[in-house]
Amino acid sequence: MKKYLAGLLLALCGGTALAQNTEGIVLYDQKVNVHRRLPDEAMKAMVPEFRTNKMQLAVRGGESLFKSIESNDEPIEASGGARLVIRVPQNEIYRNFEQKKSVELRELAGQKFLIQDSLRQVPWKLTGESKKIHGYDCLKATYIQPERQQPIVAWFTDAIPCPSGPAVYGGLPGLILELDVNEGEMIYTATSLGLKKLTGSDLKVPSGGKKVSEAEFNKIRDEYMKEMGNGGMRIIRN
Q1: Residue 32 domain-assigned (yes or no)
Q2: Which of 14, 124, 145, 214 has the most other CB atoms within 10 Å of its CB?
Q3: Helix/strand/coil (H/E/C) assignment for every residue in 97-149
Q4: Residue 142 lies in a domain
């Protein structure tokens, strides 16, 4: 009987700890290889190869909200009196894995768009590889993003049973703590895990902006990028 009670107490304590690990704020560094997105060597010579932005993921069970919290928008001085501005748009990505829906607020050329869609099942493949991140045992999962044929590598921990992660990536049986998009073109690394009770403003569904489908937004974005012709950077000449 004593062994049974001890086992029951251990199970209850473990369940409580697990429940507490499904809510909180996770901070990520987003490291972008800027040179991979520039069209020519002359422009690459003007800017640093890498750029780091601060991002935030609020999670509560099967809900999450991902957004940027800090970015360096200062112009980069270049030769010929030009200044290059690389600005991180104020996007917000809300996902509800239980209801299988997503709501994204995206900014493009000073205009905001609201995209509502259903969540898609990602065909992740587990590799069997593992490593520790912030003391958590993490497993490696991979898949190929179909539209751009980009390899995606995620490291997730089932010790935090939230199916979310940075940007639009998730659907694994645990929180993604590290993510590599297209072999180093963009890397997300968790820097802080604050597992705590969220406030009302921490996780809310985005609103406002022009309502469009994802296909409509992609068309608008592609036309804008083609018009810019410089990887989305804005060049200011004195």
Answers
A1: yes
A2: 124
A3: CCCCEEEEEEEECCEEEEEEEECCCCCCEEEEEEEEECCEEEEEEEEEECCCC
A4: yes
Domain residues for the domain of 148 are 23-237
Question: How many domains does one find in the chain?
Answer: 1
User: Which CATH number belongs to the domain containing residue 162 in this structure?
Assistant: 2.50.20
Q: Specify the residue for token string 């894995």.
A: 97
44, 86, 57, 163 alpha-carbon torsion, rounded to 10°: -50
Provide the token pair at 174. 């645990």
Measuring CA to CA, which residue among 132, 117, 83, 102 is closest to residue 237? 83
Reported as a single tens digit per residue, the pLDDT across 35-83 is 877 777 777 777 778 888 899 999 999 999 999 886 555 555 554 555 5
Over residues 4-27, the pLDDT tens digits come to: 333 322 332 333 333 357 899 999
